[in-house]
Amino acid sequence: EKGGWSSFMAKEISEQPEAVANTLRTRIHDDHVVLPDLAGLEDSLAGIDRIVIIACGTASYAGMLGKYAIEKWARIPIEVQLSHEFRYSEPVLSPTTLVVSISQSGETMDTLMAVKYAIEAGAKTLSICNTQGATIARESDAVIYTHAGPEVAVASTKAFVAQIAALYLFGLHLAEVRGTLSAEATKEALGELSSIPGKLEQVLLTKERIQELAKWMSDSRAVLFLGRHVGYPVALEGALKLKELAYIHAEGFAAGELKHGPIALIEPGQPVFVVVPSPRDPNSLHAKVVSNIQEIRARGARILAIAEQGDAAVLPFADEVIPIPLAGALFEPLLAVVPLQIFAMELATAKGLDVDQPRNLAKSVTVE
Ligand code: BG6
């Protein structure tokens, strides 16, 4: 079943272009999002005034990315909560709250219990799920299936990018329902989304280079990941992958937080992955992140930058630059995460570890 691949994870990483393409397929027509999937919410969607996204692990980072995009497009307040924390905060829920759960398996007990809590509290529920007929999907008012295909490796990869694609489709649809985005901006966003599969193919070509890097770094004791805005969840995901697969202490930080604490961790030789926003970023975050790089470089950090192709500003300060194709700011994470997935997999492989079945982890956690 692995085909010619060394692991399911290697296969699933390579399947990411199709995972996104299949999730988008049939859902974009004439510059509009078409989601018959939402029939169960049809009457309530226009009246929703708040969204709470719940998920665990990698799915929760997809949720964070959903928040940036959906808030921007649909102008609706969104909070993202870990499923297992959700109930205990006595969340304020009402019939005009939409609780969006994200789960590859659709069986994660923590997320299922959170969905049940939301239903009992009278909120509306939508699930983003990769498994047809899963329990969470059945419990929810509506489900948008990601069509990533079965994901076997414990650490999630292709399901993650498919979840982002599904959330973005939902966000663009909701923006149309709410009348918050111009037809032109919708068209542009859909164009960006549709171009992701081809760009993912290009990112996958960096594999050999990352393999070399991972081999070279296989005795690392700790690795830090920095990102800002949508690069922040990517940093968190890069760190999670490295913990899960290579058992290396790894932390992701919001780059702006660096001076508020984490910079104390920087000592000579400390490897730091930095997810660099595009120099074309409308929020001008590029310059701020480059200045973060300079700060930690001055303290001896080894900088591994994930940056847009042709970003010359990063070159003088980075030990390694992994280029990603040009994409709109909200779409960069779909590309920037891939080198980090490959890095974790290759480093685990270099350490002789089982990348499909990391110790102590299960693919689907069906206990609370
Ligand atoms: C964890 C897995 O236990 O569950 C992660 O190790 C996954 O890879 C998380 O992201 C959530 O799983 P699911 O099926 O709810 O998306």
Q: Could you give a short account of the major beta sheet?
A: 5 strands, parallel
Which ranges are low-confidence, i.e. pLDDT below 50, for 5 or more consecutive residues? none
* CA-CA gap between termini: 31 Å
Helix-strand topology string: HHEEEHEHEHEHEHHHEHEEHEEH
What ligands can be seen in this structure?
Answer: 6-O-phosphono-beta-D-glucopyranose
Organism: Subtercola boreus
EC number: 2.6.1.16
Active site: 363
GO molecular function, one term: glutamine-fructose-6-phosphate transaminase (isomerizing) activity
What is this structure's SSE topology?
Layout: H1 8-14, H2 16-24, E1 28-29, E2 32-33, E3 50-55, H3 57-74, E4 78-82, H4 83-86, E5 97-103, H5 109-120, E6 124-129, H6 135-139, E7 142-145, H7 158-178, H8 183-204, H9 207-216, E8 222-227, H10 231-246, E9 249-254, E10 271-275, H11 285-298, E11 302-308, E12 320-324, H12 332-350
Parallel strand pairs: 3-4, 3-5, 5-6, 6-7, 8-9, 8-10, 10-11, 11-12
Antiparallel strand pairs: 1-2
Helix pairs in contact: 2-7, 2-8, 3-7, 3-10, 7-8, 8-12, 9-12, 10-12
Bound molecules: 6-O-phosphono-beta-D-glucopyranose (BG6).
The site of 6-O-phosphono-beta-D-glucopyranose has 15 residues, from helix 3.
